[in-house]
Design a protein that fits this description.
- There is one protein chain.
- With 370 residues, the protein is α+β, with helices and mostly antiparallel strands.
- The chain folds into 2 domains: 118 residues, 2-Layer Sandwich (Phosphorylase Kinase, domain 1); 238 residues, Aminoglycoside phosphotransferase (APH), C-terminal lobe (Aminoglycoside 3'-phosphotransferase, Chain: A, domain 2, Alpha-Beta Complex).
- It has 14 helices and 11 strands.
- The strands form 3 sheets. Strands 1, 2, 3, 4, 5 and 6 form a 6-stranded antiparallel β-sheet that branches. It has a 3-stranded antiparallel β-sheet with strand order 7-9-10. Strands 8-11 form a two-stranded antiparallel ribbon.
- A hairpin with a 7-residue loop joins strand 1 and strand 2.
- Helix 5 runs parallel beside helix 12, helix 9 packs antiparallel against helix 10 and helix 10 runs parallel beside helix 14.
- The protein is globular.
- 40% of the residues are buried.
């Protein structure tokens, strides 16, 4: 850690109302967007642990609106958790306010910082260790959806506009194909055809939202296992973290992104697509947990559309990877030649396997209903 960065952390620590005397801090977690540190402060009662983060305002263009979203949602969650006899200090994020009363501070270089109470005796995992982890993941995100069912989603700012607007992503893809700025389109004609053959389905969810058949709700938009704190003692999902992409959206997208990532038998960037398939047992495990967590808060149409949510999120992600490949790999980090192309092909192979298993996916949802 350089002297300049160290100085900025010290400045931010002084601007946020942490309890006690700062003793030490070190990098924490595996996130790649924000700079995250675990802070230890000494008080008369002993040590207090916190998280301090520099918000990446190159990715999140409006940190003030982002923090307003998080403050509103976590305040709402604390009330619900307390009413249900839970522990709001461990079951939701708790913002440490700045000394001027705001939910964030700015250092002298204009960087945005925030603080959270550290959640003790809990761990995040980057990979599913066993089916129980995936079940707990589904249960946690389902409970998150239920707890926020009455939150006015329309009041939330879009931290990344059109993040899961599949038709908009498709138009960007078509523009990239037409421009062919890197001369790569001739290499991926099969993949381009795959995308365009499914164009009619791309707008189905947004059309249903427009028609009022799917409700707008609070969505997390990054529903991976590593955004859940698992209680070290019980092994149960405890708290949803990383709320930067909290936005108004569709529940089927949060469900679908979990399936895309967690029920694939291969890694997201597996070059050998013969290894790619949808694990129906894992799909069922997550669906059971998700519906149990939702506990009746989904509409019949939302339940019915869960498989389509999985397919659309996988399709959309593949479209984004292929778009980036056509545009010269400028958005997603790549570590080898054709990395984004491998990612796109993996997503499209998973979509194809979902199509083969469609009736089985629908049957899983029916028998998992609560």
């Amino acid at each position: 850690m350089g002297d300049a960065q160290c100085g900025k952390i010290k400045e931010a620590i002084g601007l946020l109302a942490f309890e006690g005397e700062p003793v030490s801090w070190k990098r924490y977690g595996s996130g790649h967007i924000n700079d995250t540190f675990r802070l230890i402060c000494k008080t008369e009662e002993g040590e207090k642990h916190y998280i301090i983060q520099r918000i990446n305002h190159e990715v999140f263009k409006n940190p003030v609106s982002l923090m307003k979203n998080i403050a509103g949602v976590t305040s709402f969650l604390r009330e619900r958790i307390q009413a249900q006899g839970g522990d709001p200090a461990r079951e939701t994020l708790n913002i440490i306010k700045a000394r001027d009363g705001k939910d964030y501070c700015q250092d002298s270089d204009g960087n945005y910082w925030r603080g959270y109470l550290f959640i003790e005796r809990a761990t995040t995992y980057d990979k599913v260790r066993n089916p129980e982890d995936f079940y707990q993941s589904g249960k946690a995100f389902g409970r998150f959806k239920r707890q926020l069912a009455e939150y006015p989603a329309g009041e939330l700012a879009e931290t990344i506009p059109d993040f899961h607007n599949t038709p908009v992503r498709l138009e960007a893809f078509k523009a990239a194909v037409k421009a062919d700025a890197w001369g790569r389109a001739h290499l991926v004609q099969k993949e381009i055809t795959f995308v365009l053959d499914r164009e009619k389905e791309a707008s189905i969810a947004m059309d249903m939202l427009k028609d009022g058949r799917l409700p707008l709700c609070v969505t997390h938009n990054d529903t991976k296992l590593n955004n859940i704190m698992i209680d070290d003692a019980t092994g149960e999902a405890l708290c949803i973290i990383d709320l930067d992409t909290i936005m108004p959206g569709l529940s089927i997208f949060d469900f679908g992104d979990s399936i895309r990532f967690g029920a694939n038998t291969a890694e997201e960037d597996e070059p050998d697509v013969s290894k790619v398939s949808l694990s129906l047992p894992l799909f069922e495990t997550y669906t059971k947990g998700y519906l149990e967590g939702c506990n009746g808060s989904l509409t019949p149409e939302e339940k019915k559309m869960l498989p389509m949510g999985a397919k659309l999120m996988t399709y959309e992600c593949g479209v984004r990877f292929l778009t980036d490949f056509l545009q010269g790999d400028t958005y997603f980090h790549t570590s080898r030649d054709n990395h984004n192309l491998d990612r796109a092909r993996t997503q499209f192979e998973l979509v194809s396997d979902m199509e083969k298993k469609w009736e089985e996916m629908e049957a899983v949802v029916r028998r998992s209903e609560i």
